[in-house]
Write a structure and sequence with these properties.
The chain is of the alpha/beta class. The chain has helices spanning about 5-20, 25-40, 55-60, 75-80, 120-125, 125-130, 145-150, 380-390, 395-410, 415-435; strands spanning about 65, 90-95, 100, 115, 155-160, 165-175, 180-185, 185-190, 195-205, 210-220, 225-235, 240-250, 255-260, 265-275, 280-290, 295-305, 310-320, 325-330, 340-350, 355-365, 370-380. It folds into two domains: about 5-275, no CATH class; about 380-435, no CATH class. The chain has ten helices and 21 strands.
Length: about 425
């Protein structure tokens, strides 16, 4: 299969280094994951879940691995420009797949909160990590998750103990610096019973033609509350493939915003399993693309228990010859009575050549539920543009204001003010470039 042999040989070459210091259960998981990836290979258009997204630009290149961390190439100031600048946030950084201690800011964490590298957590919190790592993101279900797991070396581990409230946001930063390389960043986030956490996850780069293959697993225990924002701001020549999976327990609260602004090809698989009664889950997203960029969002919400609520809103803005994909599925188990689930995907096309393939889905196996879904695709209302121009607003400015109003419903839900302000500025900057073409 195209590309598979390269990663098999890379694994064989690095296996002794991967195994050094790793427990047997972790290396066994790596080997099983490599076997899964070898069996599945890179997905093609024949795969139903990938029929609108071509992965051959990734499969046909032999991306290399950065084998060790070097503390140069990006400063803390440059990192703030790449992501957002808020000195009040705790920050943990992974560069080229390796923990970067010189760029972290972890002083003042409250008692009961542990934020560290995944490599260190495997050694110091082995029981907790083994219990949760790989349980939400299944390598058998996704070849990119399998490849990430096969090369799992480092990443981020966040644990908020039972009853602890972490109000100050923790910023998880993943940055790529080396051209022609792949990194497999991993994040494991565990919120204990009654815990509360606010998390921001950023992806950015200073290199070119690199590939980020990321996996994030989020565990919300009983009565826990997790607010999460994921921002993808890779360089325009990068490839970004990511899987974010959440496991939610009884009476937990979980909200996530997935914002995609960068990369030439972006694929996000976002999932949540509501495995307890009384859960509230919200999955929102905003994606922008211009030129010939391609962005694909696949979401999956499984209602496994009764009396749960989920709400999902994804909005896309596409210009140039960009291509967008939204595939959202809500699955209701036979016993999940009294489910209340809503899903909506809206997209604005700023040019005649932009395209979106949207496919909202419901699979319901319970008979006492309230579930809705819908999708809209269109262009800006020219009557609204004319109305604003008649009152002295320039044409480009009028269109920009209307597009911002469209996106604001997602942006306004972002809890961290510095993140929200940065994304608003990014949106207006993107619109000024796109609408000027």
């Amino acid at each position: 299969m195209p590309g598979v042999t390269h990663y098999e040989s890379t694994f064989a070459r690095l296996e002794s280094a991967l195994r050094a210091g790793a427990p047997d259960w972790l290396h066994d998981a790596r080997r099983r994951a490599l076997a899964e990836f070898t069996a599945q290979g890179f997905p093609t258009l024949r795969n139903e879940e990938w029929r609108f997204t071509r992965t051959h630009p990734i499969a046909e290149r032999d991306f290399g691995l950065v084998e060790r961390y070097t503390p140069n190439g990006v400063s803390a100031e440059a990192l703030a420009r790449l992501t957002f600048d808020d000195a009040s946030c705790h920050r943990i950084v992974v560069a080229d797949g390796h923990f970067a201690p010189d760029l972290c800011r972890l002083e003042g964490l409250p008692a009961g909160v542990r934020v560290t590298s995944l490599r260190e957590a495997v050694a110091s919190d082995a029981v907790l990590v083994e219990r949760h790592l790989g349980r939400c993101a299944d390598p058998a279900a996704n070849p990119f998750v399998a490849l990430n797991t096969a090369f799992l070396r480092d990443g981020v581990f966040v644990h908020v103990a039972d009853g602890v409230e972490l109000d100050t946001p923790v910023h998880l930063v993943f940055v790529s610096r080396a051209e022609g390389t792949v990194s497999h960043p991993r994040a494991l986030i565990v919120a204990g019973r009654g815990a509360r956490a606010n998390l921001v996850e950023s992806y950015a780069g200073t290199g070119a033609d690199y590939w980020t293959n990321a996996v994030t697993e989020i565990v919300c225990s009983e009565n826990a509350s997790v607010t999460h924002c994921r921002i993808q701001r890779e360089v325009d020549s990068a490839f970004h493939v990511a899987s974010q999976q959440a496991q939610l327990a009884t009476n937990s609260r979980f909200s996530t915003e997935n914002v995609s602004l960068g990369s030439t090809l972006a694929r996000h698989d976002i999932g949540a399993v509501l495995d307890g009664e009384g859960i509230d889950a919200r999955l929102d997203g905003l994606y922008l693309a211009d030129g010939r960029r391609h962005v694909d969002n696949h979401t999956f919400i499984r209602h496994a228990q009764p009396h749960c609520h989920s709400f999902e809103l994804y909005k896309g803005i596409l210009g140039g010859k960009a291509r967008g994909v939204f595939n959202g599925k809500i699955y209701v188990d036979p016993g999940a009575q009294k489910t209340d689930a809503k899903q909506e995907n809206n997209c604005i096309l700023l040019s005649d050549d932009a395209r979106i393939n949207t496919n909202p889905q419901l699979e319901i196996f319970a008979d006492d539920v309230r579930c809705t879904h819908g999708a809209t695709v269109g262009q800006l209302d020219e009557m609204a543009v004319f109305y604003m121009r008649s009152r002295g607003v320039p044409h480009a400015r009028a269109r920009s204001i209307l597009v911002y109003a469209f996106a604001a419903e997602v942006l306004e839900r972002i809890a961290v003010e510095a993140v929200r302000e940065r994304l608003e500025a990014d949106l207006f900057g993107w619109l000024s470039r796109t609408l000027a073409l």
